[in-house]
Design a protein that fits this description.
There is one protein chain. Helix content is 42%, strand content 23%. The chain contains 14 helices and 15 strands. Strands 8-7-6-11-10-9 form a six-stranded antiparallel sheet. Strands 2-1-5-4-3 form a five-stranded antiparallel sheet. The chain is rod-shaped. A hairpin with a 3-residue loop joins strand 6 and strand 7. By secondary structure, it is of the alpha+beta class. The longest helix has 30 residues. The termini are far apart.
Length: 467
C-alpha cells in the first residue's frame, strides 16, 4: 500500500479484521498499515507490525479493541473514545472508522497522557477540597465538642479507609490519645495511650518534620534502629504505615492527626486532607480549651485553686433541693490586713494559700470554697454529726499548730439541708465571735460582719441565684 498517510500528524493504522465463525465477533486484527508516528508510539518498527496480528504483538492488549473494531465495521459507525492502553502503557484518545473495503478499519491515536494526568490531578484536587470542606463544616457546626470531633473522624474514615484514626494532644511533656475511630475488628488504643512521656513516645517524629510537612512512614521498619519504643508500640498494634499531620497553635505542636494503615489512592491527596483538616482541629481544640479555662475561671479562685463564690452559691442551691445532713465550717484568716500592710501582699497571698491547704486537708477540695477576700466556707454533705465534730476538732488542732497562720473558725451541723441558709448565718456569727476573741486578746477591734444576704448579693453580681 502506498504510504499516502505519512503526513498524517497523528498515529495512524489500518487493520484487516479476523472474524469468528459467527461472522460478527472479531477475534483479532492484522496490521495492514502503520505510519511512522504509530510505530514510534508503539516502540517498534513498521516491519515488526505489518502482517502481524494485534493480539500476538501485545500480550497485555485490552480485548475491548476488538469490540470497537466489530462495531465500526458491522454498524458502519465512526467511534471516538479515550481509554488506557495497557499494551503500550499510555492513555489514548482514538477514532476508529470503517473503510470502503469490507472487513477493514482505520484507527487514529493521540497520546493524551499529559492531558489525562492534568484531568486526574484536577479531579484529585477537587475531590480533596470537597472532602476538606465537608470535614470543616462538621468541625464548625453546632455539635458538642466531643460529638463534632468523633463525627469528623468517622467522616474521614469513609474516605481514607484506615485501620485507625486518632488525635493525639500534647503539652510538650506528655502525650495522650483524646479521640479515636477504629475499623471493625481493630482493637481501640485510646485507654492505653494516656499521659505517655512525649520524648519517649513520639519525640522522634519531629525529625521527619525537618524535611516534610507531616510524619509519613510508609514502612515502620525504618524506626526499628533509631526509635525502638515507637517501633515496638506500632508493631504491637499491627501498624505497617502511618501518616501523622502535626496540629499547630501559635507555631507550636499541640498534637497530631493520624491515620494507621490507610488506603493508598490516586483519587485523593491523603496528606493534603490530613494537613488541612489538622488546622480546623487545632482551632476546635484551642477554642475548647479556652472555654474550659473560662468555665474553670468562673468557678474557681485563681489564687488558692479553690472553688469560688459562684460555685459555692450553686452548691448551696443544689443542697437545699434535697434533704440530707450537712456540716458547715466558716473560716477567716485573722490579721490579713496587717500582714499585707507590714509584710506585703505576697505574704498575705501566702497566708491565704496556707489556709486553703489546711481546709482542703481536712475537708477535700470538692467541699472547700473561697467566698471573699479572707473568708472560706466548707460544706460537707451526708456527714454524721459525730464525724463532723471530730473533723472540726482536728481542724482547730492543726490551725493551732501553725505559728505563722491564725484563722477564726465557726462550725455547725444540721440534719436537714432545708435549714442550710440559717445554719450558714449561724456559723458565720460563731466565726465572728471567734475572730472578736482573737482581736480582743490583741487589744484591737473588728468591724461588724455582713450577713448571708450580703453574701448572696455579692455572689449575684457574678451569677444569678434563685431565691
Amino acid at each position: 500500500m502506498p504510504d499516502i498517510y505519512s503526513d498524517v500528524p497523528v498515529a495512524y493504522a489500518v487493520y484487516k479484521l479476523i472474524f469468528a465463525e459467527d461472522g460478527r465477533t472479531v477475534e483479532d486484527a492484522e496490521y495492514v498499515y502503520v505510519n511512522k508516528i504509530y510505530s514510534e508510539m508503539a516502540g517498534v518498527g513498521p516491519e515488526e507490525l505489518l502482517g502481524q496480528r494485534f493480539l500476538s504483538c501485545y500480550e497485555r492488549a485490552n480485548p475491548i479493541w476488538m469490540t470497537y473494531c466489530a462495531k465500526a465495521s458491522l454498524d458502519g459507525e465512526v467511534i471516538h473514545d479515550c481509554i488506557y492502553a495497557p499494551e503500550i502503557g499510555h492513555w489514548l484518545d482514538f477514532t476508529i472508522m470503517p473503510l470502503k473495503q469490507p472487513g477493514y478499519v482505520a484507527y487514529t491515536f493521540m497520546n493524551v497522557d499529559l492531558d489525562r494526568e492534568r484531568q486526574m490531578e484536577m479531579k484529585r484536587e477537587f475531590t480533596t477540597k470537597d472532602i476538606v470542606l465537608r470535614i470543616s463544616k462538621i468541625l464548625s457546626s453546632e455539635e458538642a465538642y466531643e460529638v463534632a470531633m468523633n463525627h469528623a473522624l468517622q467522616e474521614l474514615s469513609r474516605i481514607l479507609h484506615p485501620d485507625r484514626l486518632y488525635i493525639l494532644e500534647t503539652d510538650g511533656k506528655t502525650v495522650s490519645n483524646t479521640f479515636e475511630w477504629c475499623a471493625p475488628g481493630v482493637a481501640p488504643e485510646i485507654d492505653t495511650l494516656q499521659h505517655l512521656d512525649y520524648e519517649q513516645y513520639i519525640g522522634g517524629w519531629e525529625k521527619f518534620l525537618k524535611h516534610a510537612t507531616s510524619v509519613i512512614i510508609e514502612d515502620i521498619e525504618v524506626l526499628k534502629a533509631d526509635d525502638p519504643v515507637d517501633y515496638w508500640n506500632l508493631k504491637r498494634q499491627g501498624i505497617e504505615r502511618i501518616i501523622d499531620a502535626p496540629i499547630y497553635h501559635d507555631g507550636k505542636i499541640i498534637g497530631y492527626l493520624g491515620a494507621d494503615n490507610y488506603e493508598k489512592s490516586d483519587m485523593i491527596n491523603t496528606v493534603a486532607i490530613l494537613e488541612t483538616v489538622s488546622y480546623f482541629i487545632s482551632s476546635k481544640i484551642t477554642n475548647h480549651r479556652l472555654m474550659v479555662e473560662l468555665e474553670h475561671a468562673s468557678r474557681h479562685d485563681a489564687l488558692t485553686g479553690l472553688h469560688n463564690r459562684n460555685a459555692c452559691m450553686e452548691k448551696i442551691d443544689f443542697l437545699t433541693k434535697y434533704s440530707s445532713s450537712v456540716g458547715i465550717v466558716y473560716a477567716d484568716v485573722n490579721g490579713l490586713k496587717e500582714i499585707n500592710d507590714t509584710l506585703g501582699h505576697q505574704a498575705g497571698d501566702a497566708a491565704l494559700r496556707q489556709a486553703a491547704r489546711l481546709l482542703t486537708k481536712c475537708y477535700g477540695l470538692e467541699n472547700t470554697y473561697r467566698i471573699g477576700g479572707d473568708e472560706f466556707l466548707v460544706l460537707v454533705p451526708l456527714v454524721t454529726e459525730l464525724d463532723f465534730k471530730t473533723s472540726v476538732r482536728r481542724l482547730r488542732e492543726l490551725a493551732a499548730g501553725k505559728a505563722d497562720l491564725s484563722i477564726a473558725i465557726g462550725s455547725e451541723w444540721v440534719a436537714d439541708t432545708a435549714q442550710l441558709e440559717r445554719a450558714i448565718t449561724k456559723t458565720d456569727q460563731r466565726m465572728y465571735c471567734d475572730k472578736v476573741e482573737y482581736y480582743n486578746r490583741r487589744g484591737k477591734k473588728r468591724e461588724t460582719r455582713h450577713d448571708l444576704n450580703d453574701f448572696r448579693r455579692m455572689a449575684a453580681k457574678s451569677l444569678p441565684i434563685a431565691d
